[in-house]
Amino acid sequence: MANTTMANMNTNSNSKEESKKMDEREAIPLLTPYKMGNFNLSHRIVLAPLSRSRSYNFIPQPHAALYYSQRTTKGGFLIGEASGVSDTAQGYPNTPGIWTREQLEAWKPIVSAVHEKGGIFFCQLRHAGRVSNYEYQPDGKAPISSTDKRLRKDIANNKATADKYPPPRRVRADEIPKLVNDFVIAAKNAMESGF
Ligand SMILES: Cc1cc2nc3c(=O)[nH]c(=O)nc-3n(C[C@H](O)[C@H](O)[C@H](O)COP(=O)(O)O)c2cc1C
């Protein structure tokens, strides 16, 4: 009887040993946990920021809650599509912003949907600079940039383009604090949205 018990114990510890070895052998690095600053990610697959051009009037739409929650896993890391920090920051059609009350309220249910599934969600803040056009700018003015030289290559395919992007207006040094502050306000808005 004692021998049988001993034999069972040996079998159990052997099989535990075996399954530990199997786990070690089969651990897929991408699926192992990672500590990213204060965040404990349960795996290393990240949703890259992807502008979707579905945020009409620069306002995130309710369907984005479904889109992002479908891509959420518990402990998974997602970076949201770039969000404009001010009314001069936009350069792509129907991309979201995060500089108005309406925009930040619209982000709330989207961020909640990700958090409900245990995801870690960052807001990407963007100013498009000279990668913009009159149609995205307040009063149809020139986009603003650090330079007054127009971009001569298409951002999408790096091919030369004659006039896709107009010559920007080079900002004055005294305008820079306001631009920095736009990022500060946008970051605060993102936090208020739940990011
Ligand atoms: C449709 C589309 C939208 C994108 N939107 C953004 C964006 O909003 N912000 C950003 O940083 N990158 C954006 N990217 C770049 C992707 O995040 C990038 O392609 C991804 O990280 C993969 O990197 P790779 O293209 O260098 O392989 C976009 C790419 C595509 C194809």
From TrEMBL:
Protein name as it appears in the record: NADH:flavin oxidoreductase/NADH oxidase N-terminal domain-containing protein
Record-level Gene Ontology MF annotations: FMN binding; oxidoreductase activity
SUPFAM superfamilies for this protein: FMN-linked oxidoreductases
Keyword Iron included in the entry's annotation: no
Chain spans, region Disordered: 1-22
Cofactors demanded by this protein: FMN
InterPro entries in alphabetical order: Aldolase_TIM, OxRdtase_FMN_N, Oye-like
Family statement: Belongs to the NADH:flavin oxidoreductase/NADH oxidase family.
Keywords: Flavoprotein, FMN, NADP
Keyword Flavoprotein: yes
Composition skew (Low complexity), residue ranges: 1-14
Residue intervals of the NADH:flavin oxidoreductase/NADH oxidase N-terminal domain: 30-195
Record lineage: Eukaryota, Viridiplantae, Streptophyta, Embryophyta, Tracheophyta
